[in-house]
Amino acid sequence: MNILFLTNRPTANTQAATVTEYLDALHKYSGHTVHEISMLRHFPDLVDLDRFDVVITHYSLSLGPLLHHYLGPKLVERLKRYKGLKAAFLQDEYREIQTYWKHINELGIDVLFSCVPGHEIAKVYPPDKVPKLRVENVLTGYVPERLVHQEVLPVDQRPIDVGYRTRRMPFWLGRLGQEKWFIAEEFKRRAEGTGLKLDLSTREGERLYGDAWSKFVASCRAVIGVESGASIIDFDGKLEHRVEAYTSKYPDATFEEVSEKFLGPFEGSLNLHQISPRCFEAAALRTPMVLFEGEYSGVLTPERHFIVLKKDFSNFDEVIAKLRDHSFLQAMADRTYAEIALDSRWSYRAFIKQVDDILEEEVSRRATLEASRPYTKAEFNRARRLSVNYYLRRKTALFMQSILLGMPFSRKSIFWLWEALPRPLRRFARPLARTVSR
User: Fold this and answer.
1) According to the model, what pLDDT value does residue 219 have?
2) pTM for the complete prediction?
3) Alpha helix (H) ranges present in 250-374?
4) Is the CB of residue 371 less than 8 Å from the CB of residue 52?
5) CA distance 337 to 331
6) pLDDT class of 400 with cuts at 50, 70, 90
7) DSSP code string of 146-189
8) End-to-end distance of the chain based on CA atoms, in angstroms?
9) Residues 6+ away with beta carbon under 8 Å from 122
10) CA distance 66 to 436
11) pLDDT-derived band at 420, boundaries 50, 70, 90
């Protein structure tokens, strides 16, 4: 089959490495011919959709409220008319889900690769709301092959005892979103006087990407973490708007205050907890993990693959004792590497095999229109480059992205300015930011 892969591929060191690993995996492991168009609103005019058997949209191009910003109105209309199989990868499926239903139906998406756990799919994507859609659960990321063979220092020779990076999440994502911030702040507070060297940050501008992130994880004797996902799903967007309006008016409001006022009826109504790609990165780099108690998609076994930290920190002293035992940490790191990082079930190869199998099944079952004149690689590249408006816009956007977000100093400065902006002004600045980034 000839596959068109629609993406918004970031430049080096501007997004989490998982994004590009996900993108590269389809090229590397699919048994089909994959042509990629990286875009933001502007699609190459000379590329003909009918010369593809399948069109797939990546989660870097939203199908939600910002559909027309990411795909552009012209491509949206072309996709509606396209008669081949249409598939999509989605993540962060907790925001204005009713809008996703609407766009999935309008575009005629046939297959959705979703991060919603299997037992919750029918609640998030009810068959009566998206009647023609096949939804398959996949993980948010897999074991990065490039890290599996990377040379790393033994645990006792690493300079940092405990490392972590995150950012403050919006309150309307619920308690799970807040755990990402809380674990860092509370761990830092309780670890004072222990003598452990910590490198924990919750500031957006201090997040690390690409090689800098891998080097950081490999320099830690342990990393802390929580499950990915959210504990609240906002079907119509009203909860988000109410919470944002309240926190704009009362910027010093605490999460507990907002939770009591707005979130109670929604908290825990759906279990969207998943294993984070960071767990696979740590396993591959033989870095022990200290994680809040959780299921982690059934991949990790507590106290075998990670040290359990209770969410009320009641076992904090026990955790500290284990962090001081470098022999214990090394044994856990080696075991997790062997049982998780080297397990083919969690590889990108296995993931893409699953994707290929499902696409082949659906093309056959739905008898979708096959491409009559599939592109050769040379023909596709020529059509893309000769679409001058697209080509120049894309090159300009990626250049600006690399300057503003790819350099640590400029990135820190940009996010320092962003955090200094009053919330109402951020609303006006956000469209400008989206011209160079997701």
Assistant:
1) 98
2) 0.90
3) 255-258, 277-284, 316-324, 326-336, 348-366
4) yes
5) 10
6) confident
7) HHHT-----GGG-SBSEEEE--PPPGGG-HHHHHHHHHHHHHHH
8) 29
9) none
10) 15
11) low
